[in-house]
Amino acid sequence: MSFKMSLACAALGALMLAPLAANAKTIKSTGGIVDGQGHIVAGTGFLAARNSTGNYTLSFAGGSFRKVPAFTCSGAGANGGAPICIIFGFSYSKTGTTTVNILIVNQSNQPQDNSFHFTEVTTH
Description:
This protein is of the alpha+beta class. The protein has one domain (25-123): Elongation Factor Tu (Ef-tu), domain 3 (Beta Barrel), CATH 2.40.30. It is built from 1 helix and 8 strands, in the order αββββββββ. It has one helix spanning 3-22, and strands spanning 27-34, 40-42, 47-52, 55-60, 70-76, 84-91, 98-105, 115-123. The strands form 2 sheets. Strands 2-1-8-5 form a 4-stranded antiparallel beta sheet, with no helix packed on it. Strands 3-4-7-6 form a 4-stranded antiparallel beta sheet, with no helix packed on it. A hairpin with a 2-residue loop joins strand 3 (47-52) and strand 4.
């Protein structure tokens, strides 16, 4: 392939990709750490509450997310065994409070109080 042909192909490729770059979304990610009593250890922009043994709720104020966010969680520490973190409830509101319900269980599937990490990802 000649040098001129290579330049023409590169230019054509750049023109084809330009609309993709113009429409690219900004990714927003937040996260935090909550201890076994429901206290925030790290992170801002959310509230945490312990509802019962192993049952926690994260709350985010209205306007925190323009679009539906994706959440993950993982247990931290070892209170009688390796903790398993389960997201078992989620309620999204663009203008009202968004809530995430988290359950921490042990390897026998019994609820247990334990620290957990969470992450949230959404686009702007």
